[in-house]
Design goal:
The two termini of chain A are 39 Å apart. With 399 residues, chain A is an alpha+beta fold. In chain A, 17% of the residues lie in helices and 52% in strands. The longest helix of chain A is centred in the first third of the chain and has 14 residues. In chain A, helix 3 runs antiparallel to helix 4. Chain B is an alpha/beta fold and 134 residues long. Chain B has a single domain, classed as 3-Layer(aba) Sandwich (D-Maltodextrin-Binding Protein, domain 2). Chain B is 40% helix and 18% strand. Chain B contains five helices and five strands. The chains are: A alpha+beta (399), B alpha/beta (134). At the A-B interface, strand 1, strand 2, strand 3, strand 5 and strand 6 of A face helix 4 of B.
């Protein structure tokens, strides 16, 4: 009797005409990497074989509430977070007409060419996209995104308009900090014709970042405004407090199937903050021989700390107010850095000049499943001790 | 010997098999390769006449599937999987429902004025209209 009831209820469920249309998709990137020399480390890898820095598993559930309205949630577990699953996306999409969709909730910000499919390793040739451009602290935004797409003749084109706010973890001169971007507005365009595609994005937002150590330092610097006028300017110029941040991106891609080349450039500026102006770009090329795709990429990231060094240049290295404690706190004493030295050190640290060459091979086992290996030669032009060679192997799976 | 002839016939039938793109008989739109490709790749949501399009695919492994993907969509199975994974995981679209056989596609298209499908040309009957053959 019990069995019969169970069967009946299952049959009832299957036949229920009101059941929402639910789609479940998933992806897995299992990536292992290690540097090839004992004392080298780069991108969170060191000479011990590790799966943690780049492995990602995800499950996406999409339910159609009606013809026009759907709800999507993506549950993602990352190796670097000990695979603690997190709802990275949770949004509802309304289909306004055949050309316009409006999505609201927590969603992906279309910052880069591969932003949309960043976690879907299967959708690109590398194991991970070039860190110089893609190594950013946030990829998702809480807000609203309007997607427009259309075609005309042989051209397909689209535009996205995104507004919202971002909260993420970042670092200020090496220590963890909370990053907050408010009033974010981003506009992007893309166009595709047969084998050619191009896209660009412009975004701005009020940027704030804080951690206790840095706040103490900035507060200390500001107090010296009473003795040194330029100290107030420097404190303001170092703090990341509702400063206007701008981000610009442009990418082009030529894909003739047998071979492809692509390039992407980004520029980040947060005026009046410790964050140095940052420029990054890569060029990549590859060939497809049946199931094999060998490829090569050159990437560069540079940060210009000219503005920060300018603030330091306006400060006196030593002061003599007559008050021994005030002077020592600024000037420093034997074995302890004063505020001036700390500020100079932080400004100097913001300089960056790194490049990397990556050579890799993708092997398509079957649709939805690829094996890959990449070797990256990373070079820090400011400090050769940071140079490293990284080997990665991995699988990308999607269903 | 007979076996060899049979094998040769099978091979050549597959090689020259045409794929027919079919719509409901009430659908009077004329469609070229580009417009069919756009409908099946989620780029166009409606027929030129304005009716919402509901593409129906054929399952992997069916003869017409690879023909259609290669000749009309210009994509290999791997490329198509990568293409859809991008759309699916960005909420921009879902691949068309794939039915198991030519006959299922024909009857699905015959029963839905907005449907468009592709089948082996030999599977077409009067219940549907052929808009193009590749």
């Amino acid at each position: 009797m019990k069995t019969k009831l169970a069967i009946l209820s299952v049959a009832g469920l299957l036949a229920a005409p009101t059941m929402a249309d639910i789609q479940i998709n998933g992806f897995a990137n299992l990536i292992a990497g290690m540097t090839l020399d004992d004392d080298e480390s780069v991108y969170d890898y060191d000479s011990d074989f590790s799966f943690d820095p780049a492995s990602v598993f995800g499950l996406q559930v999409r339910g159609e509430v009606s013809d026009k309205l759907s709800a999507t949630a993506q549950l993602v577990g990352r190796g670097r977070d000990d695979y603690d699953a997190d709802f990275e996306w949770a949004y509802m999409t309304y289909v306004l007409n055949n050309n316009v969709n409006i999505s609201a909730g927590r969603l992906r910000m279309p910052l880069f060419k591969y932003s949309a499919s960043l976690d879907i390793g299967y959708s690109y040739h590398w194991l991970t996209p070039p860190d110089a451009v893609y190594g950013i602290d946030f990829n998702n935004i809480d807000g609203v995104r309007v997607d427009y797409m259309n075609y005309s003749g042989d051209w397909e084109y689209g535009a996205q308009f995104t507004v919202g706010r971002v909260e993420a973890d970042t670092t200020i001169s090496g220590t963890p900090a909370a990053l907050e971007l408010e009033d974010v507005v981003a506009v992007s365009f893309e166009a595709t014709r047969d084998w050619f595609s191009a896209r660009t994005l412009l975004a701005r937002g009020k940027t704030s970042a804080a951690n206790p150590d840095f706040d103490t330092f900035v507060g200390g610097l500001a107090q010296y405004g009473a003795f040194i006028p330029t100290a107030s300017t420097a404190a303001e110029g170092f703090s990341v407090n509702e400063d206007t941040g701008t981000f610009f991106e442009v990418a082009i891609d030529i894909d003739k199937y047998d071979w492809f080349v692509g390039a992407e450039f980004t520029q980040t500026e947060v005026d009046g903050s410790v964050i140095a102006d940052n420029k990054a770009w890569y060029v990549t090329a590859g060939m497809r021989f049946g199931k094999f795709t060998p490829h090569i990429t050159y990437e560069v990231e540079e940060a210009d700390n000219g503005a920060q060094l300018g603030l330091i240049a306006a400060l006196p290295a030593t002061i003599a107010t007559g008050d021994a404690v005030v002077d020592a706190t600024w000037n420093g004493a034997a074995g302890t850095a004063g505020i001036y030295q700390t500020a100079a050190g932080i400004a100097a640290q913001q300089n960056l000049d790194v490049s990397a060459v990556t050579v890799g091979l993708r092997y398509d086992v079957e649709p939805g499943f690829a094996l890959k290996t990449d070797v990256t030669w990373y070079s820090d032009d400011l400090n050769d001790l940071n140079d490293a060679t990284l080997l990665k192997v991995g699988v990308n799976y999607t269903f | 010997m007979k076996k060899w002839i049979l094998a040769a016939t099978l091979c050549c039938n597959v090689a020259v098999a045409d794929v027919a793109v079919i719509v409901h008989p009430s659908n009077g739109d004329s469609l070229d390769k580009d417009s069919i490709s756009r409908i099946f790749l989620n780029k166009a949501k409606a027929f030129p006449g304005g009716t919402q399009a509901e593409p129906v695919a054929l399952a992997k492994g069916q003869a017409a599937t690879d023909e259609f993907n290669g000749k009309v969509l210009n994509k290999t199975a791997a490329q198509l999987t990568a293409f859809w994974s991008k759309l699916v995981f960005t909420g921009k679209g879902q691949p068309p429902t794939a039915l198991g056989s030519d006959a299922e596609v024909v009857s699905a298209v015959a029963g839905n004025p907005g449907a468009i499908g592709y089948v082996d040309a030999s599977a077409v009957n009067d219940s549907v209209r052929v808009v193009a053959t590749f």
